[in-house]
Amino acid sequence: MTSRPAPSAAPGPRGDGDQPVPGVRLGLPATGSGSVPGWGRRVAGLAVDWALATLIGRAFLQDALGAQFAPLVVFLLMHVLLVSTIGMTIGHAVAGTAVRRLDRPAPVGPARGLLRGVLVVLVIPAVVWDADRRGLHDKAAGTVVVRR
Question: What is the pTM of this model?
């Protein structure tokens, strides 16, 4: 008598280690445009955004806000304005990703963009994520990061 592994409760394609492919449970494709990107793209986008925010903040706001807070304020403003309106920051664009709503194909909007941006700046919500690679900031805002 041979034993078989128990079937998984999660539908869709399987990834490495017999885990579901991130995003498939959310109705997103397993690969290509609209799928959940890997960590490399996400970290690259974040690095680009932080570098730009640091350059802009230190060039224009350092005297008013201080060297440690100027980049953070610029990062938050960039994030809220750009994600709310066009669905991506400059870093997202460079990394080939975008932020989209899960409930319908529409712009993220100012309320969701502000909530998501504030939670990203707080860091902890952004580094606590689920199997679909959605951080607490995305869950709270009803958004997901996808490949373009």
Answer: 0.84
3 state DSSP class of 20: strand
Distances (CA, A) of 104 to 25, 31, 110, 142: 16, 20, 15, 10
Mean pLDDT of all residues in 53-77: 95
Structure tokens at 7: 């079937």
144 touches 23 (CB < 8 A): yes
CA distances from 22 to 5, 14, 26, 63, 139 (A): 21, 9, 8, 43, 14
Q: How far is it, in rounded angstroms, from Cα 39 to Cα 23? A: 14
Mean confidence (pLDDT) of the chain: 90
DSSP H or E run through 38: none
How large is the C-alpha radius of gyration of the chain? Answer: 18
